[in-house]
Design goal:
This protein has about 325 residues and is α+β, with helices and mostly antiparallel strands. The protein folds into two domains: about 210 residues, Endonuclease III, domain 1 (Orthogonal Bundle), CATH 1.10.340.30; about 100 residues, Nucleoside Triphosphate Pyrophosphohydrolase (Alpha-Beta Complex). Helix content is about 40%, strand content about 10%. The protein has twelve helices and seven strands. The strands form two sheets. Strands 2, 3, 4 and 7 form a four-stranded antiparallel β-sheet that branches. It has a three-stranded mixed β-sheet with strand order 1-6-5, with helices on one face. The longest helix is centred in the first third of the chain and has 16 residues. About 35% of the residues are buried. The chain binds iron/sulfur cluster (SF4).
Length: about 325
C-alpha cells in the first residue's frame, strides 16, 4: 500500500500534527540512550501514566549505567516494586552491567550491538537507535502496529509471522532518512492519541486521507487467544509484634522477591481472596491465618514498616490485612 502513498506528504502531515499535539513525556526530552532504554523497558506492558513517576524516581536513584551496574539486586527490585514483570528490572540491571563493563560505560550506537543487551529485542533496540541516536530504523510497538494495520487495512493477524513482517516492512518503507526520531515518535503518538484501540478519532486524524480502513475498530486482527486457566495459590498470614513472616522466592518469575509463605494444606475460611493475571492464567490468591509452625525454608520475619521488595499481589494482600488490623499500609502507592 505504501507504494501508493505519497510518502513525503504522509510524513509532512503526520509530523506537522505531532509538532502541535505531541506530549512532552519525560523520556522525549532527553537523547540519553540509557534513559531511553529505561523508559522503553518500563513501558513494556505498562501504561504511560503509571510509568512517569517510576521513570523519574529511577533516573534520580540510578542516573547512569555505572550507578545502576553497581546497585544491589535488592535495591533494583525495590525501585521496580509495583511495576510487575520483574525480569525486566533484572535484565535492565544486567544491561547496565554489560555497558559499564564491556563497553566502558559508553552506550553502543550500532543496532545489532544494542540488540545483544539483555532483555532488548527488535523493537527496543530500534527505539533506542531512533529516539536516542536519530537513526532511520523502523520501530513497531502496539500503537504503531495498530496505526499501520489500519492504514493498510491489514486482515492478517498482526501477531502472526506474515502480519508482523508486513508491519515491519511498511514501517521501514515509510521511514524518512532524516529526523526519523520525530517521525517514529509521531507515528507512535498518533496511535496513543488519535488512532486509539476503541473509537479512533478518524475525523481529527492528520493522515485520514491515506488510510484504507473501512472498519478501523475491527483492526488490528489477532490470533485467537488461549483459554484462561485458573490457578490456586494458598498462603499464610503470620503476624506477630509488628512483624510478618515472608518467604523469599527462588523461581524465575519472582526470584529474589518476597511473598506470603506458601501453604500446602489450608484450613478454614480465608482471611482474604484476590485474583491476578499471570500469562494466560488467572491466579486466585487465598490467604489464611496460620500458626508460626507453618514457617518453611526461606522464611524470615520482617518489620511491617521496612518490608523488602515483594511480589505486587502479595504486597497488596499484606496491606489490606494490616489495614484491617489498623496498621498503616506498607507502601502508599500499591
Ligand atoms: S483515519 Fe482513523 S483508522 Fe485511519 S489512521 Fe487515522 S485514526 Fe487510524
Amino acid at each position: 500500500m505504501n507504494d501508493e502513498i505519497p510518502r513525503a506528504k504522509f510524513r509532512a502531515s503526520l509530523v506537522r500534527w505531532f509538532r502541535k499535539n505531541g506530549r512532552d513525556l519525560p523520556w522525549r526530552l532527553t537523547r540519553d540512550p540509557y534513559a531511553v532504554l529505561v523508559s522503553e523497558i518500563m513501558l513494556q506492558q505498562t501504561q504511560v501514566a503509571t510509568v512517569i513517576p517510576y521513570f523519574e524516581r529511577w533516573m534520580q536513584k540510578f542516573p547512569d549505567t555505572q550507578t545502576l551496574a553497581r546497585a544491589s539486586e535488592t535495591d533494583v527490585l525495590h525501585a521496580w516494586q509495583g511495576l510487575g514483570y520483574y525480569s525486566r528490572a533484572r535484565n535492565l540491571h544486567r544491561a547496565a552491567q554489560a555497558i559499564a563493563g564491556k563497553y566502558n560505560a559508553i552506550f553502543p550506537r550500532e543496532l545489532d550491538v544494542i540488540r545483544e543487551l539483555p532483555g532488548v529485542g527488535r523493537y527496543t533496540a530500534g527505539a533506542v537507535a531512533t529516539f536516542a541516536f536519530d537513526q532511520a530504523t523502523p520501530v513497531v510497538d502496539a500503537n504503531i502496529a495498530r496505526v499501520l494495520a489500519r492504514l493498510l487495512d491489514l486482515q492478517t493477524p498482526v501477531d502472526s509471522r506474515a502480519g508482523g513482517e508486513a508491519l515491519w516492512k511498511t514501517a521501514g518503507e515509510l521511514q524518512p532518512k532524516r529526523e526519523a526520531r520525530i517521525f517514529n515518535s509521531a507515528l507512535m503518538e498518533l496511535g496513543a492519541l488519535v488512532c486509539t484501540p476503541r473509537a479512533p478519532k478518524c475525523g481529527q486524524c492528520p493522515v485520514a486521507k491515506f488510510c484504507r480502513a473501512t472498519n478501523p475498530e475491527s483492526l488490528p486482527r489477532k490470533k485467537p487467544r488461549r483459554k484462561t486457566v485458573e490457578l490456586l495459590e494458598n498462603c499464610a498470614f503470620i503476624f506477630s509484634r509488628d512483624k510478618i513472616l515472608l518467604e523469599q522466592q527462588t523461581n524465575s518469575r519472582w526470584r529474589g522477591l518476597w511473598k506470603l509463605p506458601q501453604l500446602d494444606a489450608p484450613n478454614g475460611e480465608p482471611l482474604l481472596q484476590s485474583h491476578y493475571p499471570f500469562t494466560h492464567h488467572r491466579v486466585r490468591l487465598s490467604v489464611f491465618a496460620t500458626s508460626k509452625k507453618a514457617a518453611r525454608a526461606h522464611c524470615k520475619w520482617h518489620a511491617v514498616d521496612a518490608l523488602p521488595a515483594m511480589a505486587a499481589p502479595h504486597l497488596r494482600a499484606v496491606a489490606t490485612l494490616l489495614a484491617k488490623r489498623g496498621v498503616a499500609a506498607p507502601v502508599a502507592s500499591l
